[in-house]
Write a structure and sequence with these properties.
The complex is a heterodimer of chains A (342) and B (447). Chain A has 342 residues and is an all-alpha fold. Chain A has helices spanning 3-35, 39-49, 53-70, 72-81, 83-103, 109-139, 152-155, 158-182, 185-216, 220-225, 231-248, 252-274, 298-325, 332-337; strands spanning 143-144, 147-148, 277-279, 289-290. Chain A has one domain: Formate dehydrogenase/DMSO reductase fold, CATH 1.20.1630. The longest helix of chain B is centred in the first third of the chain and has 40 residues, at 3-42. The chains are: A mainly alpha (342), B mainly alpha (447).
């Protein structure tokens, strides 16, 4: 197989896993202030993601680094074209990280409220911006010989916004299910109820997205030429329905797993449609950035393939170990006595 | 101001801010790991309290270091797209490898350390902070190999309109990068040693918990002495590498205008960039610069006048930063010597003036670190990749002045606020002293 194709697959996997893992952190960040009635309850929700959020965010750094190393031209143009959107994303990720760390360091109500709101905003914004960015990547950038003709306002076109809302809802449901799994009693029930309430909205937006994609993008072309690929979007739909079925049966862990599959398959559905583009041009296809015209040299790709094939499995192994270490549920009593926690 | 100037300013602001937090992380992670190991080995709870107290300060500092690092990775694409396109084939690799082999380790095991007191065994808990310390230093290695490549590009050919990697091994064994890494990590350890000594001194002056802070101080003093000596020793070899590979930077560091053999070192020197000479030269140590540059007394040093003006770095910032950095480095060795001597003799508390001095010395290694980076980065100008690509050719074409003004103002405000809060919290918890209640973390493992 060609190295560029290996790296296209790796690139997709890094993004998909990032969204699956940070998705529930972003989702819980949007929900904890609403689901927790007092500081103790909110701390429970925050502590469910405490041990893992940092490691989850690294998938983004790695996805960015992989884009840089494997497809430097795409990295350079995408990041400079999306300048203002990425800036807002950076600000949000920075604020989110420190908010989790700072929140528990003072006792005042105003202090906690400030960081609670900071967590809310800085979780919502990345979810929306990632969706907007990927919606626009699916639809293509307005770029030709003269460069890029878009702007932040341009990115907020209806399809970009719809994808943004799709991501927000995916992560909200995902986060709610995670919180339901990781807590007990009333907290768990409240989180589960939130997931149930949000799910119909997610379904509606997902259907709208699948329909609108036909008109706003060329993603379906690859599926027409190779119909067996439709198994991926079908899996996405099945997993989305699975969330509801498992929730109704009172199996939150299975529902959460279904939600993981949904997110992975949604990302794969999009990138399969993109192939072999990384960013299509929607005004002059000759200027589309493909995995072939924007990649690193075969030598670099070979080195990076070796690195990835050795270290990514190691990373996955110790991450699984860590999730096992922290597999129990978080309770109010535990949070109140554990001074080291957030 | 144009996009180029603004982007340079923004990179300076964001990287220097990031680098307020990184050096302490490099060193304090090691010290906390050592403290916890002492606890596991001896069962003495004093060491556990030390690991908890210094670990808390470590975490407050760590949070801001991590999140501001992402900005740097993103900026290569956002502001320096032409650079990323031109050298991404070779420069992207160390960044991606850093994330894959080091950053994952660090951020996953920091979670184990913060939240795992009751979830993993005592030994595993100590191992997890060692992994964090190891990974942080490994991170630095890859980043400095990347920066070392910008300073002294190796292992590439110019092909297909860009720099393409042809020898990965050459890049990872680039002496420039490795020396920079060595010099940098021990500089980070110096920051941590002076931080721990300074905070301990503050408490000792107030007679707070002398047992706790004398033990901390002793440990930091030894760590500091070893580190500061290594900073100087590796720095010396680093300077030789600079003289060999970047004559323009070396000439600016020493403000040498004429090419000569056996150049002496003037202890007092004022450069005059306009007239291309030195306004004042006093107290000359004969042949010293030649010795420092090539370890031979009669070596020839290239003067700035023999380097085209378009390829010279600005002399004053490089010269003064280098001088002050070296001066501070010397001061750190002296202070560590005294600190080791007094703490070993058990006479620390008899010298309040010295303790006070150490409290005020906390910021100095931070300053020395920043100055070192000014020498490295300003001294490389006008190149972004030495001899290969000019900084002015590296900036993104797709961004506009208002965009970069907006982002620069945004970063400055956001970083200002977060930096203020972080330093406030550091000071608050540093003053508060150790927590004696260990009930939350010492108990039978819950399953």
């Amino acid at each position: 197989m060609e190295l560029q194709i290996i790296w296209f697959v790796l690139w997709s996997v890094l993004w998909a896993v990032y969204f699956m893992l940070d998705g529930f952190v972003l989702g819980s960040g949007m929900l904890h202030v609403f689901l927790g009635k007092n500081d103790g309850e909110r701390r429970v929700f925050i502590n469910t993601i405490g041990p893992v959020w940092d490691g989850n965010e690294v998938w983004l750094i790695t996805a960015g680094g992989a884009t840089f190393a494997a497809f430097p031209t795409t990295y350079a143009l995408m990041f400079s074209y999306l300048y203002t959107a990425l800036l807002l994303l950076l600000f949000a990720l920075i604020v989110r990280g420190v908010s989790y760390e700072f929140r528990g360091k003072e006792d005042g109500a105003l202090w906690k409220k400030t960081w609670d709101i900071a967590i809310l905003v800085s979780s919502f914004l990345p979810a929306l911006l990632f969706g907007v960015a990927f919606g626009n990547i699916f639809a293509g950038f307005p770029m030709d010989a003269a460069g890029y003709h878009g702007s932040l306002i341009y990115l907020l076109n209806p399809y970009g916004l719809l994808t943004g809302i799709l991501f927000v809802l995916l992560f909200l449901v995902h986060g709610a299910l995670y919180l339901e799994v990781k807590t007990v009693g009333d907290l768990s029930r409240r989180a589960g109820a939130a997931a149930d309430k949000l799910w119909p909205a997610l379904l509606v937006v997902a259907v709208a997205f699948l329909g609108y994609t036909k008109f706003a993008t060329k993603l379906y072309d690859n599926y027409f030429s190779a119909p067996y690929l439709l198994v991926i979007p079908l899996l996405a739909v099945a997993a989305l329905l699975g969330i509801r079925i498992f929730s109704a049966k009172g199996k939150p862990l299975a529902a959460f797993a279904a939600s993981c599959v949904t997110i992975l398959m949604v990302v794969f559905t999009g990138v399969i449609g993109l192939f072999p583009n990384l960013i299509p041009s929607n005004i002059d296809p000759a200027y589309s950035l493909t995995i072939f015209n924007s990649s690193s040299s075969p030598y670099t790709l070979k080195i990076m393939t070796v690195v990835a094939f050795i270290f990514v499995p190691i990373v996955i192994a110790y991450k699984i170990w860590v999730y096992r270490v922290f597999r129990g549920k978080v309770t109010v009593e535990e949070v109140l006595e554990d001074r080291g926690a957030y | 101001m144009d996009v180029l100037t603004l982007s340079r300013l923004q990179f300076a602001v964001t990287s220097m801010f990031h680098f307020i937090f990184v050096p302490l992380t490099l060193g304090l992670s090691m010290m906390v790991a050592y403290m916890e190991t002492r606890y596991v080995a001896s069962g003495n709870e004093l060491y556990l309290k030390m690991a908890k107290f210094w670990g808390k300060l470590f975490l407050i500092n760590f949070a801001l270091g991590v999140v501001t690092g992402i900005t740097l990775e993103f900026q290569f694409g956002m502001n320096w797209a032409e650079y990323s396109k031109y050298v991404g084939d070779i420069f992207g690799a160390p960044l991606a490898i850093e994330a894959t082999v080091a950053f994952f380790l660090e951020s996953v095991f920091i979670g184990v350390w913060i939240f795992g007191w009751n979830k993993v065994s005592k030994k595993m808990h100590a191992v997890s902070i060692w992994i964090v310390a190891f990974a942080t230093n490994l991170s630095a290695l890859w980043i400095l190999l990347a920066n070392g490549w910008m300073q002294h590009p190796v292992g590439y050919v110019l092909r297909n309109g860009r720099a393409e990697m042809v020898d990965f091994l050459a890049m990872v064994t680039n002496p420039y990068g490795l020396l920079k890494f060595g010099h940098q990590i021990v500089s980070g350890y110096t920051v941590a040693a002076f931080f721990v000594m300074g905070v301990s001194a503050w408490h000792l002056l107030r007679k707070n918990r002398p047992d706790f802070f004398i033990t901390s101080f002793k440990m930091a003093a030894t760590f500091g002495l070893v580190s500061t000596l290594l900073v100087a020793a590796i720095g010396d070899f680093h300077a030789v590498e600079v003289a060999k590979t970047q004559p323009a930077k070396f000439a600016a560091m020493e403000s040498i205008w004429e090419t000569k053999h056996g150049v002496g070192l003037n202890l007092f020197l004022l450069p005059d960039e306009k007239r291309e000479c030195n306004a004042i030269e006093r107290l000359c140590i004969p042949n010293m610069v030649s010795m420092l540059a090539f370890h031979t007394p009669n070596a020839e040093i290239k003067g700035l006048k023999d380097i085209p003006k378009s390829e010279r770095p600005p002399v004053s910032p490089v010269f003064y930063s280098f001088r002050v950095m070296v001066g501070l480095g010397t001061l750190f060795i002296l202070l560590s010597l005294v600190a080791v001597f007094l703490s070993r003799k058990g006479k620390l508390e008899n010298y309040p003036l010295f303790l006070k001095l150490l409290v005020f010395a906390i910021p100095l290694p931070y300053i020395a670190n920043q100055l070192g980076w000014i020498v490295a980065e300003v001294g490389r100008q006008p190149w972004i990749v030495y001899g290969v690509l000019k900084t002015s050719d590296a900036v993104s074409k797709a961004i506009s002045t208002p965009q970069v003004i907006g982002s620069l103002v945004g970063f400055t405000l956001l970083y200002g606020v977060l930096g203020f809060v972080d330093i406030y919290l550091l000071a608050k918890f540093a003053r508060k002293g150790p927590d004696d209640d260990l009930s939350a973390i010492i108990k039978p493992t819950r399953k």
